[in-house]
Amino acid sequence: MTTELARRARISAVQMCSRSGASHIGSALSVIDILAVLYGDVADVDPHRTDDPSRDIVLVSKGHSASGVYAVMAHAGYFPLAWLDDYYLDDSHLGGHVTAHGIPGVELSTGALGHALPFGVGRALADAIDGIDRRVFVVMSDGECAEGSTWEAALMAAHRQLGNLTAIIDRNRLQILGGTEDVLGLEPFADKWRAFGWEVREVDGHDHEALAEALRRRSGRPVAIIAQTIKGKGVDFMEDRVEWHTLVPNADHVTTALEQLQADASGGSGSDHA
Amino acid sequence: MRDAFVRKLTAEAETDPNVMLLVGDLGFGVVAAFGDAYPDQFLNCGVAEQSMVGIAAGLAAAGRRPFVYSISNFPSLRPLEQIRNDVCYHGLGVTIVAVGTGLAYGSLGYTHHGVEDMAILRTLPGMRVYTPADALECAAAVEQILADPSPAYLRLGKNTEPLMHAGQPDLSTGGPLLVREGSDVTVLVTGPIVVQALAVADLLESEGISVRVLTCPVVKPLNADGIRSAADGTVGIVTLEEHTVLGGFGSAVLEAFALRGWRTPIMPLGLADEATHIVGGQEWIRERAGLSTDHVRRSIETFTRRAS
Fold first, then answer.
1. pLDDT at residue A264 above 90?
2. How far, CA to CA in Å, does B53 sit from each of A49, B20, B87?
């Protein structure tokens, strides 16, 4: 059940950031539902066969959401939950941005923005040439749609009609110093993707059924799923607050956050990873 | 050298379907034949170099051997972060090919002068760096690049370089390659500017200085032992490159010798640390940007007399 996967991942991500003094908890909480639906349901990936040549490719372009990515992947069985305990700390497996080296299931190291969509176009193009029916998913932030490389790749994806490529944009409308529309406006955002030749689907980025439906449906063109999200989702004092891109939750924050996230259990057991 | 590169890559593509050529909408009259012959191994990425390198990395992760081709700084400096993060961080077998490096596009202006790229790209982890002097070294470099699935940077000249060798040289040891025998001083050159070293060697011979000239197409990994023994019996090494003296080939030789505690006298010759505002062809700018024949001649002469 992907909602339970997301709930557990949220709890872990809050604990990880607090314990290690790491930023980006707001970004992690924003994207966790998308990742849970991908890793836990839609993408044809399996923690027990991460080298399977026919697996789907999941790329996370917003590398700063690493705490959320790692929390989802650990709870989905890609590596031991214990790895989360020293996230971001000295000699950890897991650093503050998504890294492929030595971490099962991570396809691409990211951290600088605007990198995964071009890489994903390359992977999707190789499959298109070879006639391999495998999907490439690229999870992106809305802020990184200011990067020119994103739109360069969007041009190529449409030019080659890469129907095996799906971009999911975590549209939480916040970046480090303010709202996306205040910093460097992206709207009309969906129209931009459509104008670039992509099929656009707009969904509630915290509704797992809607996400799964939008992600599952194939197209003959590249698909951009604009997932309307709330930065800091699940913790009321973090929700839609710009500062939680950067702030580190303290002990009181964690207590309150965990109360809210544990109360949110929808049929899951109480055995949360601590 | 440019045509030789495309010929060589075409031959490799025929036997290896993973070999791909990606171009940034450059190479008119040069790359079309490749695309016609192997449409599934050719991709014009448009004027979009960052995306081109990211796409190449994605293709390499899927098992391809992409060669990313554009001119001068466009495939190197523009997408530098993609080369660093997407290619080198992941150790992927992407080859960046810059045609017309150095001052080959002299008259097109400083934007088109590839004179800092080698210094920058050679610092990237695992990046192999090649500056062939002629078509034969270029073909050998392509073979060596394909023999190893790791990142590479191939710096090409243009099309008019005279051949320095009787046949395709063996780069398995990393060179350097003897071009002219001499006994007083060793001049070690990377790239097509070897012709100037040979011209200077002729001039110095008439002054009684015997100049040994070698090319060193493999800038990284640098064969320090080979370079040291190639200079045996001479007073020291002058390096010559059509590139800034800051951080390039000469710096690589100096670093290698200093790290090993070798005391061989070394003098790096290259372009001055300034943007070129002169309009003119390759020879014209060489003569005015710190690489004039006279300057090189006098520098080698002074170095030889002092080191003797």
1. no
2. 28, 13, 8
The nearest alpha carbon in chain B to A126 belongs to: B59
Structure tokens at B137: 């070294």
Average pLDDT score over chain A: 95
Put simply, whether B50 touches A (Cβ < 8 Å) is yes
CA–CA separation, B156 and B170 (whole Å):
18
Strands (E), B45-134: 65-71, 95-99, 128-130
In a domain, A273, yes or no: no
The single-letter DSSP state of residue B108 is G
Check if A53 contacts B (Cβ < 8 Å): no
Calpha distance B141→A16 (Å, rounded)? 48
Answer yes or no: is pLDDT of A266 > 70.
no
Confidence band, pLDDT 50/70/90 cuts, at residue A196: very high
* A207 in any annotated domain: yes
Q: Taking the model in full, what pTM does it have?
A: 0.96
Query: Rounded mean pLDDT of A25-41?
Result: 98
Q: How many CB pairs under 8 A join A and B?
A: 87
Q: Residue with structure tokens 């001499």?
A: B182
Q: Does CATH place domain B177-307 in 3.40.50.2000?
A: no
Is the Cβ of A98 closer than 8 Å to some Cβ of chain B? no
Which CATH number goes with the domain that contains A204?
3.40.50.970
Percentage of residues in chain B having pLDDT higher than 70: 100
Tell me, what DSSP letter sits at residue B102? B
* Residue in chain A lying closest to B78 (CA): A149
Question: Parallel, antiparallel, or unpaired for β A165-171 and A223-228?
Answer: parallel
Average pLDDT over residues B9-22: 97
Q: Do B89 and A109 touch (CB under 8 A)?
A: yes
Domain count, chain A: 1
Query: Region B177-189: what's the mean pLDDT?
Result: 98
Cα dihedral sign for B238, B244, B246, B252?
negative
ipTM field: 0.94
pLDDT tens per residue, range B101-125:
999 999 999 999 999 999 999 999 9
* Residue A271 reports pLDDT greater than 50: no
Q: Which class in CATH covers the domain with range B2-155?
A: alpha beta
- Does B82 contact A115 at a Cβ distance shorter than 8 Å? yes
B230 interface with A at CB cutoff 8 Å = no
Domain range for A146 is 2-263
Interchain contact, B85 vs A155, CB within 8 Å? no
A180 Cα to chain B: minimum distance (Å) = 23
Has residue A274 got a pLDDT over 90?
Answer: no
Domain residue extents for chain B:
2-155, 177-307
The letter for the amino acid at B28 is: F
**Nearest CA distance, A138 vs chain B (angstrom):** 12
Q: Is A220 helix (H, G, I), strand (E, B) or coil?
A: coil
Which pLDDT score, from 0 to 100, does residue B28 have? 85
Does residue A177 fall inside a structural domain? yes
* DSSP-assigned letter for residue B100: S
Nearest to B58 among A112, A120, A149 (CB): A120
Question: What order of strands is seen across the sheet that includes strand B95-99?
Answer: B42-44, B19-23, B65-71, B95-99, B152-155, B128-130, B218-220
